[in-house]
Amino acid sequence: MPTYTRAAATLPASDLGRARKFYEETLGLQLLEETPAGIFYQAGPHQLFLYESQYAGTNQATAATLEVSDLDAAVAELKDSGATFEEYDIPGVKTVNSIAELGPYRSAWLKDTEGNILSIGTTGS
Q: Does 3 map to a domain?
């Protein structure tokens, strides 16, 4: 079996500059490495890779999840940074003030500038 050295959620961007501004300024992710293929960001112990693609925003499901310790505070802070959260009322998922209760898990969803759906969530206690 191969020895893997890195794993990252991989997200497409039709406009890498616009997406970069969102991930750095709105979400506040830390730039880890910029490569000719794209940009790696650090999110806690995990990584997210952003690359240019004409297919950005075509996935209609959650593309990446970022976990936080205090979801209410994170949603408020991200809204203050200009993020707009999705509101859902579908079987199994109903958001109230942008947050859905899913058993012990709480989650809120937003789209990045490229149309990718991101989840910000926390495991409840």
A: no
